[in-house]
Design brief:
Structural class: mainly alpha
Radius of gyration: 32 Å
Number of strands: 13
Shape: elongated
Length: about 500
């Protein structure tokens, strides 16, 4: 059986979007599920859109997500170079383009911008494209040689037939047939000598023995042109796997350049998401396991991933679902790793005061979905927020503002006399008070928690909060509560 070889072939033209990341992930999983090889190839033929630092960002993303390449620019497996601009210097793209010219499957085109501008345009998938009229296909061999000798600028175009049809097979969408009259003579070699993305892909995939090509379904319309190139060369085509669209919750396509940083991997990491949660969630955008399970490590994904279970219908990127999943990963994290990652947010929340940061970390670990949630959860430790005394009245706890004032006045005496401000000691002392008073726990704990936090929802109970605040600050906040209730 032929060894499976997939390739992730990004263009270094910007940040790594979830669509790019999913393509890389599926290619990685397809290869690794079958014990195959995953290759990184940098496709930098679009020099005008090249972004400084984008290549390094691709490396960082693959490293953070655990998608280790078997071959690539920094790991030669015998098929290098793995950067298209470097491959171009070897002359392979021009060599293969000229081979197509010799076969009558491609031709030189010398048309200038003015002539091309005069050609008719068509709207294809919302984009206006110029349909070339094969003008230069009619040039004689002598005319072509004269133009080349004179140094006239040229491109090389694919010579697609105008009659008949072309069929290619996709693993997800099945057989797709396109009328040849709909195929434009796409450019293979640009006027600057660089190959187009489409042509370089076909040549490199063949030379590198790529067995499976994974890409978004927006490339379905281009695939017949790829198929014609494979047929023209007499090469075996790879297995095509076209992925469904990813949309936002508004059901509009998530585009790499739509300006929404929420869907860019490195921005998501900065915003408090874990790489392993992102990978897990993105794996489910278009693919589902047999048992509808949701939580997977990368190794488990490798074991379970069957690309035949990829869906055709668009996948909706649900940020709330990703946050939930991220929260589950945080809960399962090793405590030391969690503390290291949480510490900057804790310091931001409590303004570097002398609190026990480890206790604060333990307090919020099971209550957050992303790390920035920590700041809002703990900010009351830094400064008691302004609050309405109506919070003291709680139907379930059977408290009123009046009963709360009574409780606070009675417990302040006990708290001033209390020396041990550990959570356990405080709780036992207040439990004794509850028993003597003959009330439920909440009747006492609710007003105390309200006074020390100024919040209805807190990441911990009254005594846990007081342990961290310490004696002086706890008493000061309860006295403030008494004052507010007396003056309401």
């Amino acid at each position: 059986m032929k060894k499976i070889r997939t390739r992730y072939a990004p263009s270094p033209t910007g940040m790594m979007h979830v669509g790019n990341l999913r393509t890389a992930l599926y290619e990685f999983l397809i290869a690794k599920h079958e014990g195959g090889e995953f290759i990184l190839r940098i496709e930098d033929t679009d020099q005008e859109r090249f972004v400084e630092g984008a290549t390094e960002m691709i490396y960082r993303t693959l490293d953070k997500t655990g998608m280790v390449c078997d071959e690539g620019p920094d790991k030669d497996g015998g098929y290098g170079p793995y950067v298209q601009s470097e491959r171009m210097k070897t002359g392979i793209y021009m060599k293969y383009a000229k081979e197509l010219i010799d076969k009558g499957e491609a031709y030189y085109c010398f048309c200038d911008k003015e002539r091309l501008a005069s050609l008719k345009t068509e709207v294809v998938e919302g984009k206006e494209i110029t349909v070339y009229d094969k003008h230069c296909l009619g040039l004689s061999k002598e005319e072509v040689e004269a133009n080349l000798a004179a140094g006239k600028p040229f491109v090389i175009r694919q010579n697609n037939p105008t009659e008949g049809s072309t069929t290619f097979h996709d693993e997800i969408y099945g057989d797709i047939t396109v009328e040849n009259s709909e195929l434009d003579d796409m450019i293979l070699i640009k006027s600057d000598g660089y190959p187009t993305y489409n042509f370089a892909n076909v040549v490199d995939d063949h030379i590198m023995n790529i067995t499976h090509v994974v890409r978004g379904n927006e490339y379905l319309s281009s695939s017949p042109k790829y198929q014609r190139l494979y047929d023209a060369f007499g090469w075996e085509s790879p297995v095509y796997v076209h992925l469904p669209l990813i949309t936002g919750e508004d059901h509009k396509k998530l585009a790499k350049r739509n300006g929404n940083a929420s869907y860019i991997f490195e921005e998501m990491i900065k915003n408090g998401f874990l790489a392993e949660a992102i990978v897990n969630y993105i794996a489910l955008l278009g693919w589902s396991p047999e048992d509808n399970r949701e939580m997977f490590t990368l190794d488990e994904l490798i074991k379970e991933f069957d690309y035949r279970r990829i869906n055709k219908s668009p996948a909706v990127f649900d940020m709330n679902k990703l946050k939930w999943m991220n929260g589950e990963y945080i809960k399962a994290m090793d405590n030391e790793r969690f503390y290291d990652m949480a510490l900057p947010y804790i310091r931001q929340a409590v303004n570097d005061k002398a609190f026990d940061y480890r206790k604060l970390a333990a307090m919020v670990k099971t209550r957050i979905e992303i790390f920035p949630d920590i700041t809002a959860l703990l900010s009351f430790f830094d400064k008691l927020p302004e609050y309405d005394t109506a919070m003291y009245a709680h139907k379930k706890m059977k408290t009123t503002q009046e009963s709360s004032l009574e409780v606070l006045k009675e417990v302040i005496v006990l708290l001033e006399a209390q020396e041990d401000y550990s959570n356990d000691a405080l709780y036992q002392m207040l439990l004794s008070y509850v028993e003597k008073k003959g009330v439920k726990n909440g009747y006492v704990m609710w007003p105390i928690r309200t006074a020390v936090s100024g919040l209805q929802m807190t990441p911990a109970g009254a005594t846990e909060i007081m342990e961290i605040l310490g004696k002086d600050e706890s008493i000061a906040r309860i006295k403030k509560g008494i004052e507010l209730l007396e003056n309401k």
